[in-house]
Amino acid sequence: MRTIMARSLHESSFSFSKRHFGHWMGGRGSEDRKKKEEGKVAAEEIFTLSSVCGDDEEEVDDIAPPIKAEARNKRSSSSTVAAVAVRVSRFRAALAAVVAGRHRPVGFGPRVTGTLFGRRRGHVHLAFQADPRACPAVLIELATPTSALVREMASGLVRIALECDRRGSAGKKLLEEPLWRAYCNGKKCGYAVRRECGPADWRVLRAVEPVSTGAGVLPAAAGAGDAGETMYLRARFERVVGSRDSEAFYMMNPDVNNGGPELSIYLLRV
To answer: 266, 158 in Cβ contact below 8 A?
Structure first.
């Protein structure tokens, strides 16, 4: 009996301890599993986060420096281009100022350089310069043939009068009038037109630039013949301003006592 009761008690205690052990082990196992799973999840999250951060850092390391370098290169190149553009603009401005100063008409004074020139079978051109190397302040082309003016000057006295209308000339300077009626020694000889100095005119003025006073003939280009020769008369003129509507230019001829020609040019607004 005791043996049976001891056996049953032993079996019951064994089964109880087994159940509790199993429950405890199961609880411990579940907790361990939970902890393991949580640890695994945490480890995966840490790994994922570290991998993501590592990838980002690698991408930043790989991408950021070229971008910064490219930005620096762009800034340096843009600054270089801007500096070059500034230098080019300054050079162009200086060059334009030099050219403008070389070819800009200069205001008149009481003494000017006057040149009458024209091809042998062409028309007479009249140019007044404040300085022999400056652009003409006024250049007028007359309808008078060069040969006719040469015949008139052979008489020793030449008076050229240029007239324009007062009407419609408000606020305009006398030398800026575009159209004139021309008279030579009292005879009407067509019209005269104010014009800009062209390349052909510049070639003549450059050729006679060393001449202060004198007359002569410039040779023609090859194959042009006598018709291409340019006749010229160059001298210093005294300018006399009577009013805003009248001016006169008197040739200062050093050979007047030796029978040299006298030349006077009158500009009138009537």
So the answer is: no
